[in-house]
Amino acid sequence: MAADGGLKGLLKTTGGRFGLVCLFVLLLNVPLLMIEGVIDDRSGRFSDVAAEIAEAWGSRQTIIGPVLSVPVRTTVFERVFDPQKKTYVSEPRTSIGVFAVLPDELKIDAVMTPEIRHRGIYNVLVHGTSVRMTGYFTDKGLSVLKEKGEILQDGIRLNVGMDASSVRGNLEMSFAGRPLDLSPSAERRWKFSGVSAPVAVKGMKRMPFSLSFSFNGSGAAAFAPVGRKSVFRVTSPWAHPVFGGAFRPDAPKIDDGGFVAEWNIPYIARGYPQTVAEGDTGLLELKTAEVSLFDPMPVYKRAVRLCNYGLMFAALTFLMMFLLELKAGCRFGSIQYVIAGLAVSVFFLAVLSLAEHISFGTAYLASASVVTLMLSAYVNAAMRSRKAGAVCAAWTAVLYGLLYIMLCSADYALLIGTGILLCALAAAMKATAHSNEDGA
Q: Using CA atoms, how far apart are residues 369 and 387, in angstroms rounded to an integer?
């Protein structure tokens, strides 16, 4: 009984009440973790839907080429033992190898047009990209191959590496002023697949080419700098690009109207010569310039960030209730702290459930308004004070406003959060400066 009385007496002190509030904050981790589990589950479902749409629409696209595949017959003499002559003789051995001859200049102009694909309540960002490639070959690469053996002119083909399954419409290509009839690439020994066509190069010094096509994608569009001089230009009305790969664009221009990115990649930076043996063609896709479109703050990423601030928000709400206790002299019951904490927790779930159907900003405003009204009305009823209810409403509204600013401004989130905590600490210090007077 004495211990029970001591506990009750402790809970009547300011220090005891503050300790109890801290315990409630820690216990609030349980519903917050459950809500994070719901977010993870919904996010996983969204990822599955995005993968299904990407499979049907088109995923990553890597453009390699154009390159000339040139078969070369090579004859070497090997010393073999002749049992009849009982001596070593030289016998010719003939083999045919295929080499990739790369263009002297490659220019690519691409336009990425964003599109939102819908599947149930999920919205997935994809893009349709139109590409125009121009440039030219010279006979320098062929001259190098002549030193290796006999070039088989009838077997020379023009190859373009790509995922042809996501190409939409016709591929229009010309070589040396003549249109080509492209077909799926038959170079099975090469490290990449795509489309190809036979070409005639005999006697030509300069061989210009052009290629136009469109493809669907939901991942990155990557371009291999196979030209001795490679110049890429990508534009889009989407204002949130991600640049990846081995090369970055030269001073891209990004604003609310979209972006313009240009690459000027020197020959020495790509790491392979102008003539590549068939076994080394995998080198062509190792270094690329990449660009993709992304949603800067999709629903589930925002919901995760929101929950990361959940414990801080609950602590500040309980601190507000604790300070009201000190000023009003009327204490909240334990059950009232628990109910207020659950209301704060449900806010995060309400935002997620609404944001799957309406814009995140609207979902946040609606959820914050409802929870603010509920908490202020609850504090008003618990303390029988309209002033306390008004203080709760103002405090909670300010917290929700600052929390939204933190979500929208990742660069200043830490600064804003630190400012909130310092202000709350200052308020607590002022309110508890004389708490030793009650024997706590």
A: 19
